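Have a think about this chain, tokens included, and walk me through the fold.
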Amino acid sequence: MPVYVEHPMGMPIVIEVRDGDAAEAVERVFDWFRFVDEMFSTYKDGSEISRLARDELALDDAQADVRDVLARCEELHGETDGYFDARAGGLLDPSGLVKGWSVDRAAAILDESGLRGYAVNAGGDIRVRGRWRVGIQHPTVRDRIAAVVEARDLAIATSGAYARGDHVLDPHSGGAPRGILSVTVVGPDLATADAYATAAFAMGGERGPRWTARLRGYDAMSILSDGRVLSTPGFPV
């Protein structure tokens, strides 16, 4: 099974394909990720996001994709009671949505190419076409799997502090969430699943699992600091 790996957005993106020759379609996908990086990177001074943050570009003059992503960030801010916040700390950073959104678009490129068996893994957030078994890394034991998701045409996103430290904060308190180690959300859309996982993790162990239990069309698994694992009824393990 061909495996393609590149680092177009400052992280490893791995594409596994079960179909035949997919090299041309995969190259188009990596071109897309490079374009996304040029448009949305918060580290590149010339990106539209950086220019918007410096008030050098009016939102009405930004590309349609940028406007659409920022509009969805505002919707998710409302859906999550402010726990998903692309402007946390006063800084414009939609990266928490951009990764999943770009993978959803990448999957559309592969679909349009006629591929029906693939997995796109962007820094641990995954979208699959066909039937796959996907391991969820344990949040405290690096060589251990916390669960195996039985996935078919599914998006899988995990948020936690174990990979990059306390990079997800409670936007209301400014501090790290308490009582929770990781949240995995599955559903049809990776951008939304990723945002929901980030928000539920930011809510902490008390509120996060209760919030994910009310989601429609998405299911979640939360690993709490005391070792408990709480899953919604439809979580596919």
The longest helix spans residues 190-212. The chain has one domain: 3-231. The chain has a mean pLDDT of 94. The two ends are 24 Å apart (CA to CA).
